[in-house]
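In line with agreed milestones, work has continued on tokenised descriptions of protein folds. One protein thus recorded appears below exactly as we store it:

>
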Amino acid sequence: MVDILHRIGVQASVDDVYKALTTIDGLAGWWTEDTQARDGVIAFRFGDVGGFDMKVLDTTPGKLVLWEVVDGPAEWIGTHIRFDLTQEEEYAIIMFRHEGWAEQVPFMYHCSTKWATFLMSLKKLVETGTGEPAPNDVQVSNWH
């Protein structure tokens, strides 16, 4: 198994970051504007590109958010997305993992870059009040 890993610091409290990771308004403010919760699953849609459905496996306020991908591209199904949060002085540190990829395929490289851009959108949302969610995100290739 292979994982995508990122670490960012946000000048805010872990509680502010946690709110952006656990509310529909927060998620729509940094990942994709088309975010909805239904039947215990969070649905993230990206226009004609498709989307992902996440089952929330665990949340610990100010510390952890853990999802399992239950629908989307074949490479994503069954993988886990994890946000570990710690406070280091004025920074909320996010240790991000998209874990459980079966192999290093080109789509994984693309997703790693996109996760980095969306994590920077999360940082911007929490620090300034305005993120850059899809469809206003950075386009990195023909895969968007």
